[in-house]
Specification:
The protein has 466 residues and is α+β, with helices and mostly antiparallel strands. The protein has 3 domains: 129 residues, Beta-Lactamase, CATH 3.30.450; 146 residues; 157 residues, Heat Shock Protein 90. 55% of the residues lie in helices and 18% in strands. The chain contains 10 helices and 11 strands. The strands form 3 sheets. It has a 5-stranded mixed β-sheet with strand order 6-8-9-11-10. Strand 3 and strand 4 form a beta hairpin. Helix 1 packs antiparallel against helix 4. The longest helix is centred in the middle third of the chain and has 106 residues. One of its GO terms (molecular function) is phosphorelay sensor kinase activity.
Length: 466
């Protein structure tokens, strides 16, 4: 844009100079014509009477004008009556004498000398060349203004270029700062998530160690109680009268036998209730040990797609007719894990999905291959090949607070008596103990997806032995 403006200014300056030059030439010619007319009127009588001295006096008066280069007066016979020329200049010839045509030189004018209606001669005046200094003085103003304007435009162009480069540099700097700020925010968010995950891991580890220690001690006490109750029950079944702590007595009548039998039946009932409570308490300790990752496992190579197909009737029976199960079993890679615990894990997840859809719905059980590398990272797992198990429902979903606490032991959203809060925590402990990763993706109104990722172990899956 500035180059265009500079070009326009140069063109305007050139046009102004040309106009000034043309105006000066027209003005000078007009002055020549006026001087020639005055000379012609002055020398008419001298020409008519052929008074060369008088004519020359009028011509010599013009020599005082430095703008004139030459002058000549001719009569009708084409003889020069008077004239002059500057040193180094040629005299003016009567062109009419040569070809009968008036001259058409730009610096030469010709006017007739008339006496009344009769032309008695001709007067010629030729202007001198304008000196260089005069020309420079005449056009210097326009040239100076044009040059100044061009220089100003050049300075503006340079300044604009500098400002443009500075603006580009500032823009790049602002972009770099914005990118750095964005990376910093991402790193801060990542650090916050990592710190939260670390705190959660430390919390779970502490709870797991505490739960594992309590479970071991509690399990030992349960074994002592269970053994004592088993021995007591065996003695009652053998009819040992010392079982109730009283000495043997002689046989009694029929009524006494009936009373003792009723009392023994009540004792057996109480023993059965106690045994059931101990079994449930033992199951609870096993869950605690599973969460603490201290339960004994029997890992073997198995394919999750085959395992899901094997327990398909059990899964469909567990959810009932109001829930549809969609199986998407696309992976055939084996993993190393405890088959019984994995069956319980899948069954537990399916039952939880069913409970999240009280009005019925659809559950998707998917198994597919997964590759973790630099382009597809997953926090908490090294690069490699994995098998991805997911259980998806379209139920009510979880809030973010519930989702964060879902794997914590004894945390449940179910009513009192409907859940222990150890289901997902047990699954979490089992998966971590199997060198895998468990996570939850959920939100209010958009259902829940439980992700389980286990490392692929090359080899042939071992069929389960009945």
């Amino acid at each position: 844009m500035l180059l265009v403006a500079a070009g326009l200014l140069l063109i305007a300056g050139a046009l102004a100079a040309a106009y000034q030059y043309h105006s000066a030439r027209v003005e000078r010619r007009h002055q020549l014509v006026t001087q020639a007319n005055i000379l012609a009127a002055s020398v008419t009588a001298a020409i008519a009477f052929d008074d060369r001295a008088a004519a020359q006096e009028y011509v010599n008066a013009l020599m005082l004008d430095p703008r004139l280069d030459a002058a000549a007066v001719y009569n009708e016979a084409h003889r020069q009556v008077a004239g002059f020329q500057r040193a180094g200049s040629e005299p003016i010839a009567d062109s009419l004498a040569a070809d009968g045509r008036a001259p058409h030189q730009r610096q030469l004018v010709e006017v007739p000398a008339r006496q009344g209606a009769t032309t008695v001669g001709r007067v010629y005046l030729r202007a001198a060349d304008t000196p260089l200094m005069v020309q420079l003085t005449r056009y210097s103003g326009v040239a100076l203004l044009t040059i100044m304007a061009v220089l100003m435009l050049a300075v503006l162009a340079v300044a604009q270029g500098v400002l443009t480069r500075a603006n580009d540099a500032l823009h790049r700097r602002a972009t770099e700062l914005a990118d750095a700020n964005e990376r910093l925010n991402i790193e801060m968010a990542q650090r916050a998530r990592t710190e939260e995950a670390l705190r959660q891991s430390q919390k779970m580890e502490a709870i797991g160690q505490l739960s594992g220690g309590i479970a071991h001690d509690f399990n030992n006490l349960l074994m002592i109680i269970k053994s004592s109750l088993t021995l007591l029950q065996q003695k009652l079944l053998q009819g040992d009268p010392s079982a109730d702590g009283t000495p043997a007595s002689p046989p009694r009548e029929r009524g006494s036998d009936d009373g003792r039998e009723a009392r023994e039946q009540r004792i057996r009932h109480y023993l059965d209730v106690a045994q059931d409570g101990i079994d449930r308490a033992a199951s609870l300790t096993q869950r605690l040990l599973s969460f603490a990752r201290q339960q004994p496992l029997s890992p073997r190579l198995l394919r999750l797609d085959v395992l899901v197909r094997d327990i398909r009737p059990l899964l469909e029976h567990s959810v009932g007719s109001g829930v549809e199960i969609d199986y998407r079993l696309d992976s055939h890679r084996p993993v190393l894990c405890d088959a019984n615990q994995m069956e319980n894990t899948i069954l537990n997840l399916v039952v939880n999905a069913r409970d999240a859809m009280p009005d019925g719905g659809r559950i998707v059980i998917g198994v597919d291959d997964l590759r973790i590398d630099a382009d597809h990272p997953m926090e908490g797992l090294p690069d490699g090949d994995y098998v991805h198990l997911r259980v998806v429902d379209n139920g009510m979903g979880m809030s973010e607070e519930v989702r964060r606490k879902a794997f914590e032991p004894f945390f449940t959203t179910k009513p009192v008596g409907k859940g222990t809060g150890l289901g997902l925590s047990t699954i979490f402990g089992f998966i971590v103990q199997s060198r895998g990763l468990a996570s939850i993706d959920s939100g209010p109104g958009r259902g829940t997806t439980i992700h389980i990722v286990l490392p692929h172990v090359p080899g042939e899956a071992t069929p389960e032995v009945a």
